[in-house]
Amino acid sequence: MEKREKRVDGFRFIPPALRAWIRTSIPEEDFKGYIPWTPTTKPLSQMTIALVTSAGISLKSDLPFDTEREKKEPFWGDRSYRIIPRATTEKDIHVNHLHINTTYIQQDINVMLPLARMAEFEQEGIIGHLAPKAYSFYGFQYQSTYFLKEAIEPISIQMNLEKADAVLLTPA
Amino acid sequence: MEEAGFSTVVLTPTHEFHRVVGIPRSAAIEYPYGRPVGQVGDQEGQRQVLLEALSLLEKARKPGEVYHLPFTWPEEPKKTNWQPSEISPIVKLQLDDIKKARQPGNEKA
Asked: Of A49, A146, B11, B55, which one is least surrounded by beta carbons within 10 A?
């Protein structure tokens, strides 16, 4: 019997009206522009992997992401970032995001930021190391130039200091 | 981050967005927003998703590739309750446009 490979429908969970609206902004063809590329130079079992998420996760001991300003300015998203140490669990965090139900992350951080799973992979030798810090930012960004400067650049500098080889990104 | 010298892979529920901006490596997963790695407490399920996503770091050969992960979410979309309890500010602002997009003749296939 022929094996049919799955073709992911990225709109499956989006209600029809919202789906139709979002689709007006999505071209039919694949992206044809420049895509940066850093090839891997070692096997996964030797890589240091950092986790980054756009789900608005912050430590309880840290400032939460600002969603109140977004309620007043619907095109604005908090451009800051937070450091999430690798041993962080759902008991240690707040999750602030106006575009998803954050309940599940607050029940189990690993559904979005899989720190415990990656620590297990490190123990088992599947990956070389989990980086000491993960990073969280707020994914709703219209002014991407400022955001790159204020969040992505400092995150990249820190990951470089920790000698990360690769990054797994999990968007909200 | 890829330009900064890291090899990146995105575990994404909506890979179609990547037609707007190029992404080096995409692991497309048909899971609801807010839980791309899996269900609450499902350690084995989360592991399987992660192993597939991480495998792209070794097997992707050129930028822009999208790998469709083979997993199926066990609930019907309406039961997943992924949306925020209050409508997001941008969606609230654009409600008229959203309704127009849904009208027959305006909707893309």
From this structure: A146
pTM for this prediction: 0.91
Chain A / chain B CB contacts < 8 angstroms: 234
Number of domains composing chain A: 1
**Does A38 reside within a domain?**
no
ipTM of the complex: 0.91
DSSP class per residue in A42-100: S-GGG-EEEEEE-B-EEETTSPPP--HHHHHSTT-----EEEEETT--GGGEEE--SSS
pLDDT tens across B39-94, in order? 999 999 999 999 999 999 999 999 999 999 999 999 999 999 999 998 888 888 88
Q: DSSP secondary-structure letter at A24?
A: T
For each of chain A's 172 residues, which pLDDT tens digit applies?
444 588 999 999 998 888 888 888 888 888 888 999 999 999 999 999 999 999 999 999 999 999 999 888 888 888 899 999 999 999 999 999 999 999 999 999 999 999 999 999 999 999 999 999 999 999 887 766 777 777 888 899 999 999 999 999 999 8
Q: Give chain A positions within 8 Å (CB) of B37.
A: 110-112, 114, 117, 170
Domain that holds residue A109: 43-170
Judged on CB neighbours under 10 Å (0-12, 13-18, 19+), A13 is buried
Distance from CA of B105 to the nearest CA of A (A): 11
The owner of tokens 């950092």 is A50
> Does A127 fall in a domain?
yes
**Using the 8-state DSSP alphabet, how is residue A163 labeled?**
T
Q: Is residue A90 part of a domain?
A: yes
Tell which B residues from 61 to 100 touch A, by Cβ distance under 8 Å.
62-64, 68-73, 77, 80-86, 88-94, 97-99
